[in-house]
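Hello,

Our lab assistant flagged a job as stuck in the queue for most of the afternoon. It eventually completed. Since we weren't sure the result was trustworthy after the delay, we are filing this so someone can double-check. Below is the sequence as submitted and the structure that was eventually returned. Let us know if re-running is recommended.
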Amino acid sequence: MRVREGRVRIAWESVAVRCVAIAGLLAIGCFGRALSPPPPDPTPMDRAPYTIGVTDVLRINVWKNPELTIDAVPVRSDGMISVPLINDVQAEGLTPEELKDVITRELTEYIGVPQVTVVVIQMNSRFVSVIGEVVQDTRVPLTRDLRVLEAIAQAGGFGPFANKSDVRILRRNADGTESEYRFDYGAYIRGRAPGTNIVLQHGDTIIVPD
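-- returned structure --
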């Protein structure tokens, strides 16, 4: 009985700590800075080429050289990948096209004119976080355009005590500033808050309060 009571107490303490942390984040947003208007959807010109990051998984294909082809190679914590013949190659921060050029140049010393392709098969380095009153706090990989409601759905949906009218999206901008957006689920589905189901960016945090 004492063991069970101890586990229950620990569980409730964990929940309490989580709630306090979420409340703190909301307090910082509510009293530390003004809410930002919803940003417009990105255009094709706004979308920079994908840059490879740590934990991404790549496929390296060298045509007619199966011994050099790698079906799946992870980008290590130092940003490098291992490639036959040329050993370690810097991958982090490069686009797949740029990495292809690097590998092609290095392999030219060994096999003449290699035909190399690089494909990112798992985009693990870009994600958004969903926390608070959802079924399960989670990180959602950003493999394509993802909006607020879809990210919440991938966290299992709203929890039973969710305050759906005051969902917050926290974003750190490229210039180091921070923006905070508000999403009111009820207003949105009634057509009263168009444009608030925004396209998310890497590093965004969605907070669902209770």
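-- support follow-up --
The delay was a queue issue, not a problem with the job. The result is valid. Confidence is low (pLDDT under 50) at residues 1-17, 27-31. The radius of gyration is 22 Å.
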